[in-house]
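Notes for week 9. Today we move from apo structures to complexes. The key idea is that a small molecule is not decoration. When we ask for a structure prediction with zinc ion present, the ligand SMILES becomes part of the input, just like the chain. The input block below holds both the sequence and the ligand string. Read it once before you look at the output, and try to guess where the molecule might sit.
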Amino acid sequence: MKKRCVFCDIVSGKSPCYLVEESRLSVCILDINPLQRGHCLVIPKRHIKFWYEMSEEETSDLYNLARRVSLRLMKKYKADFITQYARGRRIPHTHIFLIPTFSKDPLDRYFNALEGFQEGARYLSKLGEKRVFREVLKEIKDG
Ligand SMILES: [Zn+2]
């Protein structure tokens, strides 16, 4: 039996949502477990596990919707910026998080801690060597 997808149910209208805006290939809804006032999710209408699996057309549609909503969130909430990230592990239908972020709020503290970890972890320091940067460029530039 196929497991139901909460976001496919929202897109098809089987489940209710707080719809912010809909575009041809995407929807923007309020997250029902917000980290901040105005926390939105932008979701492709097609069931896609990870954001990089979207077509170019879907990517353009989704990120343009995300940009429009982010500009409205900035205007309304006067946030420092809108944090944007994508996952797809817990709910296997990709969703872009748009979260108004203020200095020292929980999300800002979380990312500051992550960046502190990134900059301070000894085992990560080798990743910052020039030799490794050259290797990585070679690995990912030409596919
Ligand atoms: Zn789905």
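The two ends are 37 Å apart (CA to CA).
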